[in-house]
Amino acid sequence: MQNYRKKRKTTQKAQASAKVAQTRLQHLLTASPAVIYSCMPRPPYATTFVSDNLQVQMGYRPEDFIDTPDFWLNRVHPEDRDRILTELKALFQHDKLCYEYRFQHRDGHYCWMHDEQRLVRAADGQPLEIVGYWIDITERKQAEVALKQHQEFLQTILNRIPVMIAHFDPQGQLQWLNREAEQVLGWSLKEAKQIDILAACYPDPHDYQKALAFIQSAHAQWGDFRIRLRSGRRLETRWANVRLSDGSRIGIGKDVTERKAYEAQLERQVNYDTLTGLPNRNLLQDRLSHALARAHRTRRWIAVLGLDLDRFKLINDSLGHSIGDALLQVIATRLSACLREGDTAARLGGDEFVLVLEDLPEKAAVEPTIQRIFDTLEAPFQLENREFFISASIGVSFFPQDGKKARTLLNQADIALHQAKTQGGRGLQYYTPALSTETTRRLSLENSLRYALDRGELELHYQPQVSLESGRVTGVEALLRWRHPHRGWISPAQFIPLAEENGLIVPIGEWVLNTACAQAKTWRTTEGLPLTIAVNLSARQFLQANFIAQIDQILGQCDLAATALKLEITESLLMQDLKRAITTLHALKERGLQLAIDDFGTGYSSLNYLKRFPLDQLKIDRAFIRDITREPDDAAIAQAIIALAHSLKLEVMAEGVESEAQVAFLRTKFCHAIQGYYVSRPLPPEQLAHWVRENRCLVQVPDNGASHTPTLLLVDDDPLAIATVQRLLREEPYRLLTCHDALEGLDLLARYPVDVVMADQRMPKMEGTEFLRRAREIYPQTVRILLTHQSSKTTQVEAINQGAIFKFIDKPISEKNLKAALRVAFLFHDILRQRAKNG
């Protein structure tokens, strides 16, 4: 009995423990999200057990499953049912299975279930039971779906966004490319993973290392890279590198080739002149500043050259901007060719250029370059079947002499340039501090000139032109004068270049034509003076499109015959546009106007062009007349121009004639007319009329019928020597001319028909041999004798070699030797004259 009680007590205790355990298990199952179940191992897989938390998880009671064998299978989503029946077959092969499907909740909606099963077998291995558990994974599935949708959304965006995206692992190996990257690079993701994509895109080792370092950088950054595509084409790209938490990198890149080209274009527009391709003012300032820094360290010189084309605006205005632009392009090419590597040619605008020559050892080193520039611009320009001639003026400043800052040097080169332009073309001026004062003065003068015409400050004076054949006045030249109210008379050399620069020369030139023609008409009608009036034309006037109509209008208003007007035009003006010049000249000639080339010999026209101009007259420039009796070169040029005029059947006039010797020389060379202070200074119109009526100071015409007396010219600075010769020759049939100075002797040779000239070797201003050399070159038919104090072998040899000396006479002079030498000399002169007469 006692054992029974003990056993019963043990049983009760065990039952209590089991009940506690069961209660605990029930609580765990109720709290657990997993629903425990068991079912039969064959269709319809009827449920044999299900935990009580089924109702919490799915809304069903356990008996709903147990009482209806196919309850579970019928509530599986129809779209998943066949799949899970198929997958269940694997359970009987592997004894375990895990799969997911949609299951209908009691309230009718479907929820996702995770089902994990084990197959329980009997001792003989036959399937006995299936046990498992269900977990509601709807939230996870929804999250997965949302994630997948998000991933698809991102994938769509990444594949459609017009930028390249690449994913690299921490070692720099490619993991992924978006579609844009595949299309741009030319490799698919699969192909790109099979090669070293970085090496393919960056074949240069330096570029490869730079790209790899960029990808492996620990910091987010931007970088520009020039990559090679599969096609071999190069592409400018810009990449952003982003480091992820796992150490991998995302590269985001885009094609910036067009942007780079646009940026380069913008930079070029900012720094380069669009027309010529030369650096502009902005880049010039930068380059000059860097050049100055280098020169400061190396202690070398820098030259800044301001260059301006002479009369370019005239070409641009009269022939059109297309020709002007084309001309500037050719000039830019020529200027660049004149420079060394490292020098800079820049265009500031219009026809203004600046050249920077650096690394010069000394100031003089700039001179060869300047000469090359002048020479290259003098060559003719061929544009649109036209030939152009143009020149330039240059102003120069130096570092460190004239300044140490770019702006200072540029300003001073510009000041020097303005001064160079006053030289009338092809001017060269180096900067000096005095030029700054001159520039201020010029600006003030230019401002006054703008109002001079309206205020009546401009006047015309007239200089007579005289025929050497008749000795009478045949015409006058109208010369512009400016009477400033405060500064008095201002030289034309000062204000006419200013007027040409700023365009005022056009209205001023029209006023000159009107005033001169009106004055000519007045002289003809009221004074009875049929004078031809000559007017100088500026290039801008001549090349105006309406110039011919303007001439017609002025002649019509003044009622003046066209034959009474002579237009004087410079060579350089005609050569600017030959075709147009020839057309205009013929139109003027058809109207009856007289045409003359002014300052002939100072330009660069050729005989080929000269014969095509319908001219009436050539005017020898005063520069060749000034020393015509003293400098053989000037005499030769003047004689050549006179001969040229005769061969072309043109009149020839010498301007700037100031002495009787010049008149005599020009007459012997058959110059037709003269103009200059020897005849008269330019006069106001009322004074000129009075002067002509009084017939004052006209050139005397020689009597060509007078007999010639053998003439000897003695030049000696010793009065006793001259007196001795006069005494010794007082019985001889010679006309004796004497002077104490070699230059005076050259003038006497021009004034008189000298047969024999005798000069002392030792004269203070010019030695006898040099005097006789000039005499021989200007008057080759004269016979020349040299007086020497002691017979010098060296002097004799030099003189003989030069062909300057016919005989020597030693001092003191012997009467016998002198008379014998002169008899032979005059006889020899007669022989030379006879030979010349016989041809």
From TrEMBL:
It holds the Pfam family Response_reg. The modification 4-aspartylphosphate is found at D760. Residues 711-826 form the Response regulatory domain. GO terms for molecular function: cyclic-guanylate-specific phosphodiesterase activity. Keywords: c-di-GMP, Phosphoprotein. Residues 442-696 form the EAL domain. SMART domains: EAL, GGDEF, PAC, PAS, REC. Its EC number is 3.1.4.52. Residues 21-95, 150-191 form the PAS domain. Residues 300-433 form the GGDEF domain. One of its GO terms (biological process) is phosphorelay signal transduction system. Residues 97-149 form the PAC domain. InterPro entries: Biofilm_reg_signaling (IPR052155), CheY-like_superfamily (IPR011006), EAL_dom (IPR001633), EAL_sf (IPR035919), GGDEF_dom (IPR000160), Nucleotide_cyclase (IPR029787), PAC (IPR001610), PAS (IPR000014). It is an enzyme of class 3 (hydrolase). This is cyclic-guanylate-specific phosphodiesterase. It comes from Nitrosococcus wardiae.
